[in-house]
Amino acid sequence: MRGRTPRLEATQSTILTPSREACDQLLWVGYHTHRTVTRLDGLWKLTIVVRRCVQPECPRYHVAYRPEEEGRWALPHGEFGLEVIALIGQWRFREHRSVPEMHQALLARGVKITERSVTHLMQCYEELVALRITDQERIKARLQKQGHVILALDGLQPDVGHEVLWIIRDCLSEEILLARPRLRSTQGDLTALLTEVKQLLNELAVPVKGIISDGVISTLSVKTCMYVCYVTRKVALQADRDVVDATKRKRKSRMETLRSIRSEQSEKWVEITLKIHR
Hints:
Blueprint: E1 12-16, E2 21-22, E3 25-26, E4 28-39, E5 42-52, H1 70-73, H2 82-93, H3 99-108, H4 115-129, H5 137-146, E6 149-156, E7 164-170, E8 176-182, H6 187-204, E9 208-213, H7 222-277
Parallel strand pairs: 1-5, 6-9
Antiparallel strand pairs: 2-3, 4-5, 6-7, 7-8
Helix pairs in contact: 2-4
């Protein structure tokens, strides 16, 4: 939520770049955007690199792809980091602190924030942990139109000893599909979260193409990841292979046509040159 006080200058900055591929090659850079995010370690300026496919025959032609990591920093259009939301949720629902107490505690940690924003972020936390994809018609329609999802698994722990807020989101639509606070982070806990999301997506007939995580996925067994992805991913990968093969055939045909045209042009230039010299 944007306040009336002018924002301070960012003290830290980073560049986020998507790694997604299409047509069997890295997507081209379409444009850059910028946003600032307030985290517990200061105010960050993010440079967002947005990539797009430039092949007209590609089904993802000119579809904008934002960095997969962006959703780990903050909610879409949010100005405060997810770790700030997780900390407010910990204070409110575990330690039962009031909004003024949380506001003063954040100011003491160097986080520039208003009481109104603290209230808003507390409501965001409540909405996250109560989220059910089946209650969100807009999300359902968007995912079904998109055709598949690439899941990201993020664990946010504001301080040592606090519970971890686990968030599962879709990298393509930037939608958060599930958020749960957990005191433990065992393989069984994470498997249960992924299984819950998988069941919800199965009801929508939306396949999971992959899972992305910043080191968290190493805590899961290969068998668990295969369990989440295998059935739907097999069909999706075959569909992608068909698209890639069709694209390669069209590209090959186009190159042959260009070579033929260039050959004809070269022959004409040779004839013209010979006539001139005669």
